[in-house]
């Protein structure tokens, strides 16, 4: 199933590159990047595990928001399936692929979910045409995809910025945070990702571009990370797949903390060679208090898909200062996670497609 996720990411990137190649090179402000070595032993947690009565083939994404658990299947006619976070009864499905009204074309994972006016919303990023705020309750009630508002990028400037972005987030109703992919942006002097701060109504950038990586030139997939925006929109966490590193970006000050376990594991040459490449973070989520990293502890990528491999996932919990507070052996091969901060659960999808639940109430004791 990890291969399905990787395939979706690759296909998504290829589609974006095919849609848009820009020759415009923009100046980036170098952020203050500092490395922070983990030097304390985290507290061990034991998290009770339950298997949920949800039977779906090859879930591709998982989102928990308010009283809903969303399970995505990109290969199905209707992509999003909504379940009650109390009974786990299926409440309905919506979001079709296509070129019709409220349908999606190139669509990856859901990067942002939030409450607005007392209602659960998710952000749908459909390339090349729009960014939509989807109302879950209205979509269930009407039996089809319902957007409260849609952002269409129709000017040359807006289209260029949108098509150069791997992911887009809402900081407010009009201010967008865009994760800028260097190749599609026409940048040639480096291969590092950065953030653009875009005012949709004014159709202009309202803050300098923020460069949050300092890697040497390498293939973009080697720097693959799982981003997670803090609910209040002030910080972003990035969990790196092939580097033993979590970055915490302060979007207000521009300061970046690269939290690493061992500076030796940060070596670029080891990542370049597939025979020495290791897998570290498969996924990442966050809440107001914690970063949740699905950790593989440097398992060889050449062995991870073998039926005989004996790895199990570890959950790492950091605070927003970068301190590693807790670790928990999840006792299963988990490939996707979602955090339900309201119900105090961590949801996961196993390699066998089972949807499981871990009790996080111990964190509030």
Written account of the structure:
The protein has four helices and 28 strands. It has helices at residues 2-19, 136-142, 156-163, 268-272; strands spanning 29-30, 32-37, 43-44, 49-51, 61-65, 68-72, 78-84, 90-96, 106-107, 113-116, 119-127, 130-135, 147-151, 165-170, 175-180, 194-199, 204-211, 225-229, 235-240, 245-250, 255-260, 278-286, 290-300, 314-319, 324-329, 334-340, 345-350, 355-359. The strands form six sheets. It has a five-stranded mixed sheet, with helices on one face. A five-stranded mixed sheet has the order 2-21-20-19-18, with no helix packed on it. It is globular. It has 365 residues and is mostly beta strands. Mean pLDDT is 89; it is low at 2-30.
**DSSP E strands, number:** 28
Distance between the termini: 35 Å
Total helical elements: 4
Share of helical residues: 10-25%
What general outline do the C-alpha atoms trace?
globular
- Strand order in the sheet with the most strands: 1-17-16-15-14
What average pLDDT do the residues reach? 89
Strand fraction band? 35-45%
**SS-based structural class?**
mainly beta
Spans of at least 5 consecutive residues whose pLDDT stays below 50 are: 2-30
The Cα radius of gyration reads 20 Å
